[in-house]
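Progress note, sequence design subtask.
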């Protein structure tokens, strides 16, 4: 593209927008989808797991709304593949909230997850939600055992002869070969990771996969009900092992197979007793200086994740990752860009403060600043507007007129207090203004209803103008988000201990507008 292509978007003298079409084209040109800097999710998953295919588990929409279900399902698959690739079992979920992702990772994939959130209310809610989920898990488990018992009675008169079982055992034994998988993974990961970053051995995972696949095959041969198979998807891997060790007639198995299954059962029981709770919600405020070992006493090699970490928390997650040798990988999806702190926004001298933006040295050297209005715009959802989910014009109009009122009547131009979601709780514009004034701790008694409505009528004809302005902000939103995300990616590229880092589009942007993940893996020498 020539440098002059977008030069006529704004008037050179007045700096006003004069060509809306070119403005939209310029914004599209600068979006992530057009810049070609993202790594496709499919490529990342293929490189991480090699020939190991993903497992199908419980459907998250049984416990979550459609948006959260989509996010947890997609992100958990990526996280478990990164964990398996790095040979780690511990995950730290930063800004875990109510524990949707944490509880799913622990129960579905048997990972040991610490969910850290600054809100004690969220932590308590996560504890309660986790308790209910475990109860749900146990109900499925009990139902599965009952069905197994009845199925065994039905199969008693239709059991295959010993020779057929041995034949199948021989044919199905070489399910996976660790060495061949390892070498294939090393080849495919080179497409994403620089030379020198080789695959971390995951023999324990491969052995576990073999045990699970043998158990699943035997269930299929027994023609158990679909409900029992669904239970196996719900339960952690250790529960599957216990199940499989008891559902066959041991007289039909060779001594070596008996010994192997007995050992697997003992290991599963030991694991179950020592890790009866694989998800631990904790309350703590995370900063760039946070020592995780002070919060997590049994900290080991792990990875950090964050699903919609708010404001500076996303930036601090990356800083902690680069600074702590125990953390081998990170997968972070940020949100709430308007809450980011900016080093060059107010020109304040705070030499020791750690800022949310910019992170990379390149933008720091240029003294780059977005400003709050731009960061607010970055939070808008272009894809949703594109499919017909229009902006809440009326609530935006209410908010704009309210600002005029508090400036002209009360002389307030800046406040630390927020109106929040007052619009949805208001029956009229008058009701909205009075509730908002109370939240801002301003006296509404000196403001009659007639005065409030005068302001409404004065600006009502400009509502379409406001809508057009906000549509332009929506078009510009992806460009501002690009700047923030590329700043985080460049920060990782500047670090010496990172083997690979990238931006990956995880979610459907209509379901989840903040859909990009910043992912990084440390070099092998850091393991």
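Output:
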């Amino acid at each position: 593209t020539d440098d002059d292509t977008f030069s006529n978007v704004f008037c050179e003298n007045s700096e006003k927008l004069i060509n809306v079409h070119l403005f939209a084209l310029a914004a599209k040109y600068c979006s992530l989808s057009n810049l070609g800097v993202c790594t496709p999710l499919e490529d990342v998953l293929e490189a991480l797991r090699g020939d190991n295919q993903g497992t199908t588990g419980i459907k998250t929409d049984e416990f979550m709304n459609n948006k959260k279900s989509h996010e947890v399902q997609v992100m958990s698959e990526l996280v478990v593949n990164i964990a398996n690739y790095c040979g780690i079992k511990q995950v730290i979920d930063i800004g875990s909230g109510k524990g949707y992702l944490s509880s799913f990772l622990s129960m579905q994939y048997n990972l040991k997850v610490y969910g850290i959130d600054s809100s004690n209310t969220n932590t308590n809610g996560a504890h309660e939600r986790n308790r209910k989920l475990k109860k749900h898990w146990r109900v499925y488990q009990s139902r599965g055992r009952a069905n197994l018992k009845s199925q065994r009675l039905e199969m008693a008169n239709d059991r295959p002869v010993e020779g057929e079982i041995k034949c199948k055992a021989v044919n199905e034994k070489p399910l996976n070969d660790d060495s061949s998988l390892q070498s294939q993974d090393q080849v495919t990961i080179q497409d994403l990771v620089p030379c020198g970053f080789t695959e971390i051995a995951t023999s324990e995972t491969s052995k576990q996969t073999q045990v699970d696949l043998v158990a699943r095959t035997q269930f299929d041969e027994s023609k158990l009900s679909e409900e029992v198979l669904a239970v196996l998807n719900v339960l952690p891997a250790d529960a599957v092992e216990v199940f499989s060790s008891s559902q066959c007639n041991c007289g039909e198995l060779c001594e070596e197979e008996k010994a192997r299954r007995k050992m697997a059962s003992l290991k599963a029981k030991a694991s179950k007793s020592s890790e009866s709770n694989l998800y631990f919600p904790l309350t703590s405020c995370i900063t760039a200086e946070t020592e995780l070992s002070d919060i997590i006493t049994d900290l080991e090699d792990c990875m950090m994740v964050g699903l919609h970490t708010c404001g500076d928390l996303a930036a601090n997650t990356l800083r902690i990752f680069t600074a702590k040798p125990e953390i081998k990988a990170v997968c972070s999806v940020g949100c709430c860009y308007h809450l980011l702190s900016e080093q060059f926004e107010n020109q304040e001298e705070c030499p020791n403060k750690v800022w949310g933006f910019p992170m990379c040295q390149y933008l720091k050297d240029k003294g780059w600043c977005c400003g709050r209005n731009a960061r607010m715009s970055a939070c808008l959802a272009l894809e949703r507007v594109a499919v017909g989910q229009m902006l809440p014009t009326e609530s935006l109009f209410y908010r704009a007129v309210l600002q005029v009122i508090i400036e002209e009547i009360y002389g307030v131009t800046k406040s630390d207090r927020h109106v929040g979601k007052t619009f949805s709780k208001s029956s009229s514009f008058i009701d909205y203004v009075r509730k908002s004034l109370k939240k801002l701790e301003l006296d509404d008694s000196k403001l009659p209803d007639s005065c409030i409505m005068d302001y409404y009528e004065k600006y009502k004809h400009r509502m379409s103008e406001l809508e057009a302005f906000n549509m332009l902000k929506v078009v510009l939103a992806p460009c501002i988000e690009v700047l923030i995300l590329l700043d985080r990616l460049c920060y990782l590229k500047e670090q010496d201990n990172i083997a690979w880092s990238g931006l990956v589009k995880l979610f459907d942007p209509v379901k989840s507008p903040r859909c990009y993940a910043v992912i990084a893996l440390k070099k092998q020498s850091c393991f």
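Residues 166 and 204 are 26 Å apart (CA to CA). Work on this subtask will continue into the next period as scheduled.
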